[in-house]
Amino acid sequence: MPSNDLNLIVGAGFSGATIANLLANKGEKVLIIDKKDHIAGNCYDYRDKNGIMIHKYGSHIFHTNNEKVWNFLKQFTDFNTYMHKVVGILDGIETHIPFNFNTLYDVFPYSLAKRLEEKLLDVFEINTKVPILEFQKQDDDDLKFLANYVYEKIFLHYTTKQWGVSPKDVDGAVTARVPVYLSKDNRYFQDKYQGIPLDGYTKVVEKMLEDENIDIMLNTDYKALNYKNFKRIFYTGSIDEFYDYQFGQLPYRSVYFKFETYDKEYYQSNACVNYPCNYDFTRIHEYKYYLDDKSDKTVIAKEYSEFFELGKNERYYPIPKEENTALYKKYLDKSKDDKNVYFLGRLGDYKYYDMDKAIARAIELFEEVCK
Ligand code: FAD
Ligand code: UDP
């Protein structure tokens, strides 16, 4: 039976599970609910009948420079040494993404690539990361040609598929996640700590929630709870939904995955292959690579993107844009009237968090309000 010393956490993804774990460690009682039939939110994974670990909501690769987050997670799991690389098919040429010096030599004849490399190193320091919208500001004709090539072949169509608008119409921070990298490092991330939890993400969250102070209720929507008088509420769902959309809906992008099983050991050369120039899907994930699962079958998922529509699909990506931030802020201001209700997470904060940022934010919020 709920009582006034009980904390309610809405959402059992990494944000909610982090707060739940920290509160329980402090001896506080926690009820964590999720409307889904499983814990771990978008990081949910499971082993299928072939023994392959499937990331139900798309590939999740852990990476961070944040020691505190890394040490926090290490309490619950060990990680393998997987370092993510992304392959892209650029008009039939298989090469590296982000665009780097190796990509340059893959897509252009040697003499042209050499000239471009030298010109690039006249302008930029080695190992610099340059967002594409910045990279396009070149005076030299050769570099202009290169920038247009990268924009057109890597960013334009992929971003249009992913966000429904061109790279010039999404917040620059979005495309800056995958900058042009003046380096020979083919990795997608350069963070100090990277890897995949050895038993998967769901197991990590399960361990985070394994505490006698924590009760879990799945298949339970916050709106369906008839008791709402908790000590504190931590809400990791979307803030507009919490307030019944009274200022209007916050827009999101959604994605969906078409899964296919093949009767062969591998389907493609890499865990993640991007298709920036062709097809309606953005990328293909092949899951067995992440934990080096052995099977004579393989499972892939083609990823498609669409707008979020209430009742039709799920919220995946907040859309960073001034007017959306302003709408979010209206809700946040309103939330100040609700004492002891806190919003966090990719949906609750309306921020394009990676896992480490979601966990860091949850730790900070806990330290701010619960210590
Ligand atoms: P979520 O995981 O979304 O959890 C929120 C939970 O709240 C959900 O389970 C939801 O069902 C529940 N909920 C919402 N509303 C209600 C309600 N009214 N009642 C009850 N429950 C409710 N990050 C990385 O670091 N590396 C990656 O490689 C990576 N890849 C990604 C790929 C994709 C396609 C996506 C979408 C995200 C990716 N991320 C990645 C980001 C990562 O998924 C998030 O950082 C992380 O899931 C955030 O956790 P969260 O708890 O804030 O949100
Ligand atoms: N992007 C692109 N082409 C690519 C890869 C990324 O245009 O081949 C752009 C696109 O706008 C994408 C953004 O960079 O949404 C961020 O890419 P990331 O891989 O970080 O996206 P996520 O994994 O979060 O979906």
What would the keywords be for this entry?
371 residues; alpha/beta; Rossmann fold; 2 domains; 7-stranded mixed beta sheet; 5-stranded parallel beta sheet; 12 helices; 18 strands; binds flavin-adenine dinucleotide; binds uridine-5'-diphosphate
Describe the model.
- With 371 residues, the protein is an alpha/beta fold.
- The chain folds into two domains: 6-81 and 194-249 and 318-369, Rossmann fold (3-Layer(aba) Sandwich); 86-181, no CATH class.
- 32% of the residues lie in helices and 21% in strands.
- It has helices spanning 14-25, 67-74, 101-107, 110-123, 132-135, 141-163, 172-175, 201-208, 239-242, 322-335, 345-348, 355-369; strands spanning 6-10, 29-33, 45-47, 53-55, 62-64, 86-90, 93-97, 129-130, 180-181, 193-195, 214-217, 232-235, 252-262, 272-274, 283-286, 298-307, 317-318, 341-343.
- The chain has a seven-stranded mixed β-sheet. The chain has a five-stranded parallel β-sheet with strand order 11-2-1-12-18, with helices on one face. A two-stranded antiparallel sheet has the order 3-4.
- The protein is globular and about 75 Å long.
- The mean pLDDT is 97.
- Bound molecules: flavin-adenine dinucleotide (FAD) and uridine-5'-diphosphate.
- Uridine-5'-diphosphate (UDP) is lined by residues 88, 97, 154-155, 158-159, 162, 174-175, 177-178, 274, 276.
